[in-house]
Fold:
Amino acid sequence: MLVVTVSPKFQVVIPPAIREQLGIEAGRRLQVLAYDNRIELLPIENATQLRGFLRDIDTTVPRENDRA
Structure:
């Protein structure tokens, strides 16, 4: 388990192992959310980076017999 300390300026350093695993680099923008009793950091992606991310999604939907 990785542990970080909150500085007097309320700053937290993301450990190198986590930065490398998630590909977080200096200047990366993250959205901060308070969820239940935790803090979540979500990367902000622009539209061009999201292009094609649903390419291989399965679009088949099981239907009931009385539906067309």
About this structure: The longest strand covers residues 30-35. The chain is about 15% helix and 20% strand. Residues 16-22 form the longest helix (7 residues). The mean pLDDT is 89.
